[in-house]
Write a structure and sequence with these properties.
Elements lengths: L1 H23 L6 H21 L5 H22 L7 H22 L2
Helix pairs in contact: 1-2, 1-3, 3-4
């Protein structure tokens, strides 16, 4: 099971990297970031597909999308200069709480 979690977090890293490259691609007008988008999204989906063979899809996808969303939002704030509003920060905390809650209920079965 540890292997699945490692692959899942590598997949999340690839998805976050692909999304960051999407921003850097400037509407697919810059070739290197554009190629990187497809490469990293492909790796992310491949990793997720490997993980869901051994892990509940509800848990794997919730962690993948929740952690990815929260990470991309933090990158947007810290690197791309997006505004960090109270609503945005509270919403990110709710995402994290939701992912932790799903994992907690899954392990308690």
């Amino acid at each position: 099971m540890l292997e699945s979690w490692i692959i899942l977090f590598l997949s999340i890293f690839c998805e976050v990297t692909g999304t960051s490259c999407l921003k850097l691609s400037d509407g697919f007008s810059k070739i290197i970031p554009t190629i990187s988008v497809f490469l990293f999204y492909g790796l992310a989906l491949w990793g997720l597909s490997v993980v869901v063979k051994k892990m509940d899809v509800s848990i794997a996808y919730a962690v993948w999308s929740g952690v990815g969303t929260a990470t991309v939002a933090m990158i947007g704030i810290c690197i791309f200069g997006e505004r960090a509003t109270v609503v945005k920060i509270c919403s990110l905390l709710l995402i994290i709480i939701g992912v932790v809650g799903l994992n907690y209920t899954s392990s308690g079965e």
